[in-house]
Amino acid sequence: MSILLTGATGFIGSSVLPRLIEEGHSVTALVRDEAKAAQLEAAGATALIGDATDSELVERAARDSDGVIHLASANDVDPGFVKAVLTGLAGSGKPFVHTGGIWTYGSNADIVEDSPSAPPALTAWRGATEAIVLAAEGVRTAVVVPAVVYGRGTGIPTVIVDAPRGAGVSPAIRLVGDGTQHWTTVHVDDLAALYVLAFENGDAGAVYLGASGQNPTVRELGEAAAAAAGVAGGVQEESAEDSRDRLGAAFADALLLDQQARGTKARIDLGWEPNGPTLLEEIASGSYAPQAVAAE
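User: That's the sequence. What structure does it adopt?
Assistant: Structure tokens below.
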């Protein structure tokens, strides 16, 4: 199939693109500049230089495709982009996979796809656009909701791994808050597999949580990072207000959410099998470990 893909050079896209190509799909990747276009052409995609806010371009590219995967989700992009895609795909029954976000569910010890929405300020914008996607007729829409994505030594876990160490004889890694909150997580390569499955086999109007079932606490992550780096003082709590001052209020409030999820629906309905290393393993001896970072 010929797929229109956004965000192909990003953290998630750099795993989704090769996965699509391996599955035999041809990919047209929407990018903004020549440098990224060359990068994508080398990776086996066809580059379409333009902007996701260019409605005419997006509508035409969507119409010419066999379906769309939208990874470059953003507050200033999504309303116009989604409208253009749905217009381009109208009545075709072709797939459109949109990207949601786990923080939209707020603190919850067992998040499932239809759990109540309780977004922090950072992601409050998502709900309206997702509702439009899921309600669309004549297009096989789905929303993939990534948990905290990790892998390749980058992404949100660097907030822990690269946290301030403090000073003194026994420096300690500073936690976000007191560290008792859980983060529900997914390896970027496992998430990429879910996007492809949702595109190929997802039900119309479906939501799929991209959550591995691994839900470590921030304290556990910090302790793993401290042990890997030989930080003598281990970890140090900080108040929620101090986290907000250090990281910015909106981002900190999202990181302070206490979230757990299992991702059961994607396993049952799509046969998804997340089997990448856990985030704790990645911090202890994988891509976030000091020796891996030093080797880059």
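The radius of gyration is 20 Å.
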